[in-house]
Amino acid sequence: xxxxxxxxxxxxxxxxxxxxxxxxxxxxxxxxxxxxxxxxxxxxxxxxxxxxxxxxxxxxxxxxxxxxxxxxxxxxxxxxxxxxxxxxxxxxxxxxxxxxxxxxxxxxxxxxxxxxxxxxxxxxxxxxxxxxxxxxxxxxxxxxxxxxxxxxxxxxxxxxxxxxxxxxxxxxxxxxxxxxxxxxxxxxxxxxxxxxxxxxxxxxxxxxxxxxxxxxxxxxxxxxxxxxxxxxxxxxxxxxxxxxxxxxxxxxxxxxxxxxxxxxxxx
Length: 267
What we know:
Elements: H1 2-28, H2 56-65, H3 74-77, H4 81-94, H5 102-124, E1 142-144, E2 147-149, H6 151-158, H7 191-203, E3 216-217, H8 220-223, E4 229-230, E5 233-234, H9 236-241, E6 255-256
Parallel strand pairs: 3-6
Antiparallel strand pairs: 1-2, 4-5
């Protein structure tokens, strides 16, 4: 009986450790990264931070290889992989701290996520979909100092915890149905305006079919519905109506569009 109990205890510990690893890999852990919640209306500023990160290297690459529709020339991007690696190395060495402002942290993590995603595609190009790559969001592959984070970790463990739902319209998963990859880097100096622009462009794009009575929305509004709040309460319709050219009736029935995971590649 004692042997059976000991075996059960060992199996429980092993399962618990595996579960913790899976949770961390799947993106519920911040890996100790600093997180600051947006608790009031966000303003753009560089004045309240110990560090102002220079994202100009990423900005140049985006201008060169991403068009106005957010489609990426991955084939040509491969020729500049050394510059992309250099930018990611610079971000890794910056290593955010609590002395950074909320604005700097938002810009840093959004750019890090997008640049690391482009690197993932470039390293595996040609590919038809990011989902054809092994563990695209769960494998720890993004360096910050001596820590290795997954893309899921940056999204779920950090950015979503910052209480800024507009991040969902800025991070790009290299797929057709994703919010487009903006062809400029996010910066603390323009972060609020950039987040607003991303929200308006995504909500009013063909990623959603918005009508007053029968809206058909991106699956993003289904997967992350808890994040979209108005006055502190979950309210997907109310949130969308803040940015949508067409207002949705409050009692409307929402359906969701199939997600197109094909690569957001320039043809």
